[in-house]
């Protein structure tokens, strides 16, 4: 993702024209007091992770403790457990091979069906390399690149050099190619629909600056956006700015709505005085927004001038909303039945949004669903009808909750990354992975394994699933992140060989044939920036300790293998670890110099062991998304066919899809409150955890802070609890027809504020059945090996 963002930021920097003078600052790693304290205890080393720059105190060569290395308001518990990550009983200590696979080595075209149930035996690195080399050559000779899936989605660790799956793909691009992935789990639906509507993927773009929001917005809508929680991390490294902005929001006079099935950590932080809960039924946001739009149009509150000048297709949308298209008017009463929010509240929100400068901050949970495309298309449609897009503090933002979006972009020399092709070429960091003809949409992995050669529709194209005979996963955990794991597990038995590279015995590693132990980011040297949008800091990621056990860096694993294939020169470009880092840093430093920002030379930077902060840019502080387009839509057209916001898309019309019409529309999800059968009356929502990054850190002591009955906490409404005789702290079985998981009943809502609510979480927790078999990071078997 960051590559997109860095590219964007570079473009913005170029666009920003006149360059101010002035140098950048070194942030002292810790406050003087904390610093003195830490120095007395031992040496401090600076590193970083997705959850921010870290100051790590060492003692006798061991990691003692870790703390934030920059000011980070509020607690970010993720920053405290570096030692637990490194010294951990679920680390993989040496290369391992599955017993049945080893026994069957001469006949592995016929897999034995025992993945996930078999024992592992240790082998040497050389033996592991021998087997991998032989099998990779055989697979290429028999099936070509389409036989190897190396899409390997996942969040790996931060760093511009030690990028797990990028390095794997770099190696495989030199040996013959692979099947990659399209899109991601985060925004899979939005990033396909948004280019048709706005001409950009929109989800990974800088937002209207928080400074502007705090000054000009009268209403902020958290639409399934849990900023306090989800901004603890970034794809590169968190700059911690969201907490600062939330604090200011709490202190401001701005009215906040939390449109969410849950009373989130963010809502809780803002408090009931500042923030009103609109506890919507999951999966019904489009209906709810249509109800608001109906009221806006009925009252003649829609902004006809804006719609005419900046959008196409309002007439079709209007006809649909008013019921002229399908005979069903999308009235507030109609929307209330589906969403669980009263028609009066819907009318009130329509009036408030119309009368006040309103910023809709949308998270991504609303689109990580069946028909998820509609949710963000409808969000843009609603914002267009309100007519505030491009005005200070108005419109919508799809990334305020992520990577501290809205923290203004700094003037900076931006660090490049190692690419998945050698010597320049594509340095795509996240989305497509270099073999686009063969790539499959990322969440199609089960479908691909089950239907080799099968056809599927994707964004107007008919594509064909490859015949995957080998899987190599490096830096991700599909047994954590994929849906319907029983189905994945069945498909997973089909390939001939599966290699997994990870520091830990994840559920995925346990389903491999060959398991290779990777280092954590604390066992190698690297660099990162903070703030995928802000480019706020450059941080040295210094090696804290030697690789644990027989673990090796992913970089070195693929370098060793590259030698066996005679491609090591192209792989390494003749550079070792520190030479790579110096080259990346030098490039950033040169670009900084052109902007008259003084960065120290690499050696000094590295030895100083400090976080480097980039200077502010007054222009960026005042940034308003779509202001240029609003000022002059002819000179600054959008990248859509019409150059305008497409509320109706002729491109999509021409696709003739039943499940995506040419304008945003209400398509009932296959499973939701509205069609729940009696035996599965509850709906499970699986938001991202405050205490983990997906499955990462699940194996640390953080778990002790939040686990209930030693399981992931399950929040249930008192009404649902009463009907089931569940007490706080009970171990509960959560199940449906597809699978089951154990959880601990915790944070049972019983505060007076929620208990008195009629439309409370009970309405969402009741009568709905969707369950994804592992909640984020539940990993029922993580500890069981
Ligand atoms: N039910 C449900 N499922 C979801 C979601 C949800 O909201 N609900 N969210 C989805 C989303 S948005 C996402 S992004 C995905 C996340 O899914 P993943 O990105 O797969 O989850 P992580 O736990 O971050 O997995 C990263 C893995 O990389 C390993 N790793 C870390 N550093 C290194 C390294 O240097 N080298 C190697 N080789 N390995 C390393 C970690 O140990 C871990 O096993 O989950 C998706 N799945
Ligand atoms: N601490 C922490 N931060 C993270 C992550 C993490 O694992 N831990 N993961 C990171 C990643 S990779 C991503 S993609 C982002 C994810 O960012 P998001 O996708 O925005 O995060 P979620 O927590 O899945 O969902 C946000 C909110 O949407 C609500 N929600 C769910 N369904 C619905 C619905 O149908 N309607 C409405 N209105 N609301 C709904 C949830 O209750 C939740 O409060 O977070 C990132 N930040
Ligand atoms: Mo994600």
UniProtKB/TrEMBL annotation:
Domain Molybdopterin dinucleotide-binding: 682-745
SUPFAM superfamilies linked: ADC-like, Formate dehydrogenase/DMSO reductase, domains 1-3
EC number: 1.7.2.3
One Gene Ontology MF term: molybdopterin cofactor binding
Domain Molybdopterin oxidoreductase N-terminal: 47-87
Secretion signal, residue range per the UniProt entry: none
Cofactor(s) for this UniProt protein: Mo-bis(molybdopterin guanine dinucleotide)
Binding of Mo-bis(molybdopterin guanine dinucleotide), residues: 155, 368, 477, 481, 524, 554
CC terms in the record's Gene Ontology section: outer membrane-bounded periplasmic space
Main location: periplasm
Entry annotated with the keyword Oxidoreductase: yes
Domain Molybdopterin oxidoreductase: 91-564
Gene Ontology biological-process annotations: anaerobic respiration
Record's keyword terms, sorted: Metal-binding, Molybdenum, Oxidoreductase, Periplasm, Signal
Co-factor binding details: Binds 1 molybdenum-bis(molybdopterin guanine dinucleotide) (Mo-bis-MGD) cofactor per subunit.
Compartment list: Periplasm
Gene3D superfamilies per UniProt: 2.40.40.20, 3.40.50.740, Dimethylsulfoxide Reductase, domain 2 (3.40.228.10), Dimethylsulfoxide Reductase, domain 3 (3.90.55.10)
InterPro entries: Asp_de-COase-like_dom_sf (IPR009010), BisC (IPR006658), Molybdopterin_N (IPR041460), MoPterin_dinucl-bd_dom (IPR006657), Mopterin_OxRdtase (IPR006656), Mopterin_OxRdtase_prok_CS (IPR006655), Prok_Mopterin_Oxidored (IPR050612), TAT_signal (IPR006311)
The keyword Oxidoreductase appears for this protein: yes
Family: Belongs to the prokaryotic molybdopterin-containing oxidoreductase family.
NCBIfam families assigned: bisC_fam
Protein name: trimethylamine-N-oxide reductase
